[in-house]
Amino acid sequence: MIKFMAGQKGQGKTRKLIDMANEALKQADGHLVYIDDDRRHTREIDRDIRFVEAGKGVLSNYREFVGFIMGILSQNADIEHIYVDGLSNIIKTLDNESLQKLAKKLDAIAQRDEVAFTISINYEPDTLPEDIRALLM
Description:
By secondary structure, the chain is of the alpha/beta class. It has helices at residues 13-25, 62-75, 87-90, 96-113, 130-133, and strands at 2-6, 31-36, 50-53, 79-84, 116-121. Helix 2 (62-75) runs parallel beside helix 4. The radius of gyration is 14 Å and the shape is globular. It starts with a strand and ends with a helix.
């Protein structure tokens, strides 16, 4: 399962994503991972959720992000949900076409590894391709 949260910066996506992750931990059978572009919110995320700082614009494209995700999954086969905050800050180049390709790759990973993804992006929902809008929360 892949779900996106879209909106402009400052619309509360991070707060909602943190609350979702902290709440999901209460019923989780496996591990949760929270990926962010910086460490500002580490104290708000439950310490039992694995926090990963990806850095701002460190990954050049969606392919590198998929490799990054595969590396995380290879370290722990018991991950059930990955939350990604600010994907548009983590990947240096992320246009609509790249976002569509990323969604397809993550969907294949989600099905194969039985992991869910919830991802926030700084995009206005009406500017996203229809197949991505169908994945919006």
